[in-house]
Structure formats: structure tokens, C-alpha cells
Write a structure and sequence with these properties.
This protein has about 300 residues and is an alpha+beta fold. A hairpin with a 5-residue loop joins strand 3 and strand 4. It is built from nine helices and ten strands.
């Protein structure tokens, strides 16, 4: 079992923490005013350049964090909790920007008030944002991937938006990979992605959701308008393929469905339409059939 720290050991521990360039030790009175601060306040570039002693803790932080921090400060003093745990907060910095920190408050039983540790996590948050972006991005085309596509569709449906989902699938991609290698297939996928980006509107959302399959969220579009956008892409791909080389002629099939009761119902209707387009000869657009949509809703798709 750990023993208690002696006064000398506590002093040595404080010096170790207080000497950190990224950790700010704060002693706060009962109202939340700073009565002591370690030297890191200047190195962290917080909102004021001078000594923070006499300032209120909330002067360091963005107003959106005020309630959470002050409630933790109160609860720690009242003995309702042993400490606040780590609280992620936005802090104001001298250049007018905001940076992410985490704050932990503990009690000061003798004097009242609290002692806090404010630690910069801006680099960690930036890394987390980069990892999230990478997890939502297709590495070949740099479009959003299926997970991101489904999340965006879910958000739109929950928000009551209207529109259509279009699914495009390159015809005979497997044959192309066999004849020209996967590197050749990859070049075709990237070129097709660029073609679609040029032809779609600024509010349309394009994702690569499977090998040769791309999804488009056509928000606030009527069926005729959505179908016209699909035809432009199919016709442009057909026209862009070289003539006289049948094994190089590129086409795609497409399925179109309106936003339904759920992302699963919507995607299933679009997938059925896409399968129908393949079955009817490829290089064509098929729209979701009404009875497929009703059936999908009935079984909870």
C-alpha cells in the first residue's frame, strides 16, 4: 500500500509537475480566483501575458466551458466528489485563437478552494481529428468512405431532409483488373471519381462505398433532377472511353432511390435498383421500384 508523502516529498513532486512546460498548476480560492500559478502560464500562451494570480479561472477559458468547470469546482469543495476527473476545455490564447486543454480539480482541505492541473492537449486533439478524417476517407480516391456516407445519410434523414441516393458501379471492373492488373483498375477508379466530382453540384456528396461502387447523396433534389445528374455521369463516362478497343470501353450502371424511412431502407432500395440496371444490360440507370420501397419499409430495412 502506498504511504503518505512527507512535506519534502510533496515539495519535490510539486517542483516536478510545476517545471513542465505543458502543465499549469493552479491554486484557486473558494470563488475560483487564482491565488497561485506555476510558471507554465506564460509558456502556454494563455489569454493574458502577465501573472494570472488574482484573475478568475473563467478568464482563461472559453465561455462554453464555464458551467461545467464551476460546477466541478463547487462539487470538489463540498466533498461531493474526490476530484473532478479530467475535463476537456477550450482556453483562450494570446493570439485570439482557442486551444484544447484538460483540467483536473482537487480539494484543498485546509484553506478551502481547489488545486487544479491544466494540461495542453491541442496536439492530441489535432491527431485525433486527423485519425478520424483518415478513418472516414477512402485512401485511393480520397473521397469519403462507406462509413462516412452512411453517417451523412443518417444525419440527413434524421433532419427531415429530402433527396435521393444514387449508386454507381463500374461495369466489368473485375475483367479490367484481370487484363490490366489492379494498378490499372485503380487508375480507372481514380479517373471515374474525378469525372464524377466535375459533373456533380457543389452540394452533392460523393463517396466510394465499395470496390467499384460510388454513392452520391443528392440533397433537396426531385427525382427528375436526380435522374438527370445520373445520366450526365453515365453518358460522360461512355463518351470518354476510347473507341475501337472494346476491352477498354468503360461504362457504369446506376441505381436511384429517394430518401426513405432509414439509411438501411434507402440504401437497400438503391442497391436493388442498381442490381436491376446490371440485369437489364448495364450502362444504364434504373430507379427504385415502389413495391421494393414498401417491402423494405415493412420488414424494417
Amino acid at each position: 500500500m502506498w504511504g503518505d508523502f512527507s512535506p519534502g516529498e510533496c515539495t519535490a513532486l510539486y517542483r516536478l509537475v510545476a517545471g513542465s512546460a505543458r502543465d499549469l498548476v493552479l491554486k484557486l480560492d473558494r470563488r475560483g480566483r487564482v491565488v497561485h500559478a506555476s510558471p507554465a502560464s506564460a509558456r502556454l500562451g494563455l489569454a493574458f501575458a502577465g501573472d494570472p494570480v488574482g484573475r478568475h479561472l473563467l478568464e482563461l477559458l472559453h465561455p462554453s466551458c464555464a458551467h461545467t468547470v464551476m460546477e466541478a469546482h463547487r462539487a470538489v469543495q463540498a466533498g461531493e466528489i474526490e476530484d473532478s476527473g479530467w475535463i476537456e476545455v477550450l482556453a483562450q490564447v494570446q493570439n485570439g485563437d482557442r486551444q484544447w486543454f484538460e483540467l483536473k480539480l482537487g480539494p484543498l482541505p485546509c484553506d478551502g478552494g481547489t488545486v487544479g492541473l491544466l494540461r495542453s492537449i491541442d496536439d492530441r486533439r489535432a491527431l485525433e481529428d486527423q485519425l478520424f478524417t483518415a478513418a472516414m476517407t477512402d485512401p485511393l480516391t480520397h473521397l469519403s468512405n462507406r462509413d462516412a456516407f452512411v453517417r451523412m445519410l443518417h444525419h440527413l434523414i434524421d433532419a427531415g431532409a429530402h433527396g435521393h441516393v444514387a449508386l454507381f458501379d463500374l461495369d466489368h471492373l473485375r475483367t479490367l483488373n484481370l487484363r490490366h492488373g489492379h494498378s490499372g483498375g485503380d487508375r480507372v477508379l481514380v479517373a471515374f471519381a474525378h469525372l464524377m466530382q466535375k459533373l456533380l453540384g457543389p452540394d452533392d456528396i460523393l463517396s466510394r462505398i465499395a470496390g467499384g461502387t460510388f454513392g452520391v447523396l443528392l440533397t433537396e433534389t426531385a427525382e427528375t433532377e436526380a435522374a438527370s445528374a445520373c445520366y450526365r455521369i453515365l453518358e460522360a463516362l461512355d463518351a470518354a472511353s476510347p473507341t475501337g478497343h472494346s476491352h477498354l470501353h468503360l461504362t457504369a450502371s446506376a441505381g436511384l432511390a429517394p430518401f426513405g424511412s432509414s439509411p438501411d431502407a434507402t440504401l437497400r432500395a438503391a442497391e436493388l435498383a442498381l442490381v436491376n440496371a446490371k440485369a437489364r444490360g448495364r450502362n444504364r440507370l434504373e430507379r427504385a421500384e415502389a413495391h421494393h420501397q414498401r417491402w423494405g419499409m415493412a420488414v424494417g430495412w
